[in-house]
Structures are given as structure tokens and as C-alpha cells.
Write a structure and sequence with these properties.
Two copies of one chain form a homodimer. Chain A has 136 residues and is mostly helical. The first copy, chain A, has one domain: Arc Repressor Mutant, subunit A (Orthogonal Bundle). Helix content of chain A is 49%, strand content 6%. Chain A is built from six helices and two strands. The first copy, chain A, has a two-stranded antiparallel ribbon with strand order 1-2. In chain A, a hairpin with a 5-residue loop joins β1 and β2. In chain A, α1 crosses α4 and α2 packs across α3. The radius of gyration of chain A is 17 Å and the shape is elongated. The first copy, chain A, starts with a helix and ends in a 6-residue tail after the last helix. The complex binds iron/sulfur cluster (2 copies). The structure holds a DNA duplex (30 and 30 nucleotides).
Chain lengths: 136, 136
DNA sequence: GCAAAATAATACATCAAGGTAGTATTTATG
DNA sequence: CATAAATACTACCTTGATGTATTATTTTGC
């Protein structure tokens, strides 16, 4: 019940950026502030650009800004872009032949909980997280 | 929100074995029935023995049987033995400096859901899963 | 007591995620 | 237009999870 590292990085970056969602953030700044290695972060930022969350400005005074309103970026979108959302809905036993409700107690026992989790991810935006976040 | 492969194997093995919890199951049988590679499964079975869930009988007519009642084997025990239970309770953002409630919206948004998940794992036994499981 | 059937142990192979380095490209500004 | 400051790209390294192969050990039953 965790995201992979890259997804976690993505969250941290975007949450930090959402503190001032009009600002340009350089990869150097983000890297130092969040303790994420430069090169890896750069790739991630490029990916997040290609996914449409942020946009890059190359050259001097460049950096990254949101490409759209943080009210329109759902947590599920971020997960989906980085590690894919499939596994959050798929069988916890990786029994790919089966996907039927009511066939296995696992499904019954955790299906509802998983759905709530997924719902939360699909309805929570970066804006929603903004105020209370301690991640600086 | 998934277990790693080894944990999934462990679940499948133990769930299958719990269908008839007095029987000896050979690694060959389990391997073929569940499509798990022999050598890897063997190691897992040895680990599950050492963890006290099952016991091994070496030599001809050997195999593995439960070492204790399946009413006393909680899903959380299995996870804990194989991949550790820590991450099911730790910060989803891997912000290891912090572990305070109310400090970050993430915590508020998903804390309750995670607790329910953990509770379910800690109160559900192999016996509870027995009847309805389709995993043969 | 020997052969067959089982587990145990050990060492090595493979693969994907994550991490690192070096070079190329773009752009603002003096 | 040259330089500095930024991102983009590409190739390689490291590590941990998973997979495979080989050999050793134990036990049963003829
Ligand atoms: S019924 Fe069980 S095996 Fe089938 S998809 Fe649901 S959890 Fe997986
Ligand atoms: S408050 Fe946020 S950062 Fe801190 S432990 Fe909870 S989820 Fe993690």
C-alpha cells in the first residue's frame, strides 16, 4: 500500500510547486529542496511536462510552471501518468484470469476499501492538498 | 496498493493449503497447481516454515503441513513474515522525518483508509478466507 | 542398506527500478 | 553574438527482487 519512489517524487514536486502555482521552479531548486537527485528529477520533470501537468521553459531564467490549474489535477492523474493506475484496481492476488466479484473472500474483504482509496485519489486535487501540506 | 510477488505467492500457497489443512502438500504439487517456479517456491516454503506457519517433512512422502491452526494465522502475519508490515503503516510520501497526524492533507485524506486496510489484515485469518476462495 | 522421493542450501543469472554522468540544445541578456 | 543558465537526451551503472541450476541432506520403504 504505497506508491513507488518515482510517484512519490512526483507528488512531492507537484505539492511543493502548488504552494505558489504561478512561479517558475528550476530543477536545481527542486532538487535541493526535496533531496532528489538532479538527473533523475530532470527526467521526471520532463515526463510530467509531456503528461501535461507542467510546462518547461528552456534557456536562461527557465524552469517549470503548471500548465493547468491545480484545481484540475487529480491525484489519480499523477499516479496514472507515472506508474499507471491499473494496479490500484486490479486483483490483489495478481490472479489475472479472474476479476469477478464475490468469487474470492479477498475480493469481498478488500474490494470496498480499495474502492474508497481509488475514489479518494480520483476526487482529490493538488489544490485540495495545498493548505495543510507541510511539505516545503 | 499491492503486495509484492513473493507475498502474493505466499497467500496463494497458504490459501490453497488451507482448503485441506491436515494434508501434506509437496512443493511439486504446489508448484504445478499454482504456476510458481519450483526453486523459488521451495525457498518460500522453507521461509514459511521458519516463520512457523507450516512445517516441513523431509524425505520420501514428505511435504508441508500447517504447523498451527489456520484460525490463528492472520493475513497481517503472513505479510509481516514475507515483506514486512512496516510500510503498510508508514507515510505514503516516504517523508520519514514526519509522522504526525494533521500536518499534511495526505495524512488526513488517506490515514483512515489505511487504518481500515490494516485493521482488515490484522483481523482476517486464513480460515476466514477459506470458504469462498476460488483459488484452487 | 540402498534407491527413490522429498526438502535444504548455495551460488549464480536476469530484469526492472532507480541512480549517475556526460553531452547537446535552447534562450535570455549584456 | 557570445556567454551563462537553464532543460533535453542518451548511455551507462547499481541494486534489489525475482528466477534458475546444481549439489547436499534427510527419510521412507522395499
Ligand atoms: S475474486 Fe479473488 S482472485 Fe478473483 S480478482 Fe477478486 S481478489 Fe482476485
Ligand atoms: S503528515 Fe504527511 S508527510 Fe507527515 S507522515 Fe503524514 S502523510 Fe507523511
Amino acid at each position: 500500500m504505497n506508491f513507488n519512489k518515482t510517484t512519490t517524487y512526483a507528488f512531492k514536486v507537484l505539492i511543493l510547486m502548488s504552494h505558489n502555482d504561478q512561479l517558475d521552479y528550476t530543477s536545481t531548486y527542486l532538487s535541493e529542496k526535496l533531496n532528489i537527485q538532479m538527473q533523475y528529477l530532470r527526467r521526471l520533470l520532463t515526463d510530467l511536462s509531456k503528461a501535461g501537468f507542467i510546462q518547461s521553459k528552456r534557456g536562461k531564467n527557465g524552469g517549470f510552471v503548471f500548465a493547468k490549474s491545480i484545481k484540475n489535477i487529480f491525484l489519480s492523474d499523477i499516479i496514472d501518468a507515472v506508474e499507471g493506475l491499473e494496479k490500484f484496481n486490479s486483483c490483489m492476488l495478481e490472479n489475472h484470469d479472474c476479476n469477478k466479484e464475490g468469487k474470492c473472500s479477498f475480493h469481498d474483504a478488500f474490494g470496498e476499501i480499495k474502492n474508497k482509496m481509488t475514489d479518494a485519489l480520483k476526487t482529490t486535487t493538488l489544490f485540495d492538498l495545498k493548505e495543510k501540506s507541510i511539505i516545503t
